[in-house]
């Protein structure tokens, strides 16, 4: 099946016109008869310039001390937790990429194994959901020592903007996922500006979503990416009173929520 991609007019993002989409929902019933796709990188999304950061020092230095903060507000976290509840099955194996001291997994759901990854061991050691964790700079090395097909789900929360080699990271996630496994990439409009890549910093909300969609499309075998948005301010912004209150700092807006989701090879049908 052919899919038209939307063109992004940014000097930091390569554009493409068409790709062949991989197995999607309409194919899931007969996926076992189909050859499962390879997970190879088909094309690079970012230009060299798009990968650059204002702070050029190693990311490990930036994250050398723990930050025991939450990076997004309660509304964002609750939307994300609900999404996890909906998409992740209990008793499965989960890898939380670029994680910290907090988990956004539903606290009442039991998973078989939750592995964390990040850059600060002190933060990760405080995360109550992790069975164990790995410290690795993904901008230096994108390969994990886990065997292929180790996880049912891989998560990346409010961190994708720091990846300078996203195509290789998405390729590695594909390798780590079991067929039918899901990769959920969520983000808002907040970031450590100096550490976000140029293609992200200089983008809009729309282009950032498209960027993550393109990261998925760059790897052969991911299903067509789904986009989930929850923009709490969209309604409030229309009210003149809300606008005035916000102008004087009397009403704080909520963090917009975006998630881009795709599956390795096919999207399974989950039981209720
Ligand atoms: C904004 S925090 C988000 C933490 C967590 N996902 C959450 O939802 O609270 C960004 C995280 O990305 C991780 N990170 C940033 N650059 C990284 C890199 N080059 N390699 C691996 N992890 C990185 C840091 O360890 C940090 O925990």
Automatic annotation (TrEMBL):
<dbReference type="InterPro" id="IPR029063">
    <property type="entry name" value="SAM-dependent_MTases_sf"/>
</dbReference>
<dbReference type="Pfam" id="PF08241">
    <property type="entry name" value="Methyltransf_11"/>
</dbReference>
<feature type="domain" description="Methyltransferase type 11">
    <location>
        <begin position="134"/>
        <end position="185"/>
    </location>
</feature>
<dbReference type="GO" id="GO:0008757">
    <property type="term" value="F:S-adenosylmethionine-dependent methyltransferase activity"/>
</dbReference>
<dbReference type="InterPro" id="IPR013216">
    <property type="entry name" value="Methyltransf_11"/>
</dbReference>
<protein>
    <recommendedName>
        <fullName>Methyltransferase type 11 domain-containing protein</fullName>
    </recommendedName>
</protein>
């Amino acid at each position: 099946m052919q899919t038209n991609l939307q063109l992004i007019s940014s000097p930091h993002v390569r554009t493409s016109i068409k790709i062949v989409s991989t197995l999607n929902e309409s194919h899931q019933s007969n996926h076992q008869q189909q050859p499962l796709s390879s997970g190879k990188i088909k094309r690079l999304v970012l230009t060299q310039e798009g990968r650059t950061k204002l702070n050029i020092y190693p990311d490990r230095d930036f994250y050398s001390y723990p930050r025991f903060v939450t990076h997004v507000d309660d509304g964002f976290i609750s939307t994300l937790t609900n999404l996890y509840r909906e998409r992740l099955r209990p008793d499965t194996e989960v890898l939380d990429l670029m994680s910290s001291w907090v988990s956004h997994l539903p606290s009442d759901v039991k998973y078989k194994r939750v592995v964390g990854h990040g850059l600060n061991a002190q933060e990760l050691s405080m995360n109550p959901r992790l069975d164990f964790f790995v410290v690795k700079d993904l901008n230096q090395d994108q390969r994990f020592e886990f065997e292929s097909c180790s996880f049912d789900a891989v998560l990346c929360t409010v961190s994708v903007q720091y990846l300078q080699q996203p195509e290789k990271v998405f390729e590695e996630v594909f390798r780590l996922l079991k067929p039918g496994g899901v990769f959920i990439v969520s983000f808002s409009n907040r970031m450590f500006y100096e550490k976000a890549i140029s293609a992200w910093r200089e983008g809009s909300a729309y282009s950032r979503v498209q960027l993550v969609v393109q990261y998925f499309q760059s790897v052969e075998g991911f299903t067509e990416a789904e986009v989930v948005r929850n923009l709490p301010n969209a309604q409030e912004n229309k009210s003149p009173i809300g606008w005035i209150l916000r102008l004087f700092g009397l009403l704080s807006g909520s963090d917009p929520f975006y998630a881009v989701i795709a599956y390795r090879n096919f999207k399974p049908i989950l039981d209720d």
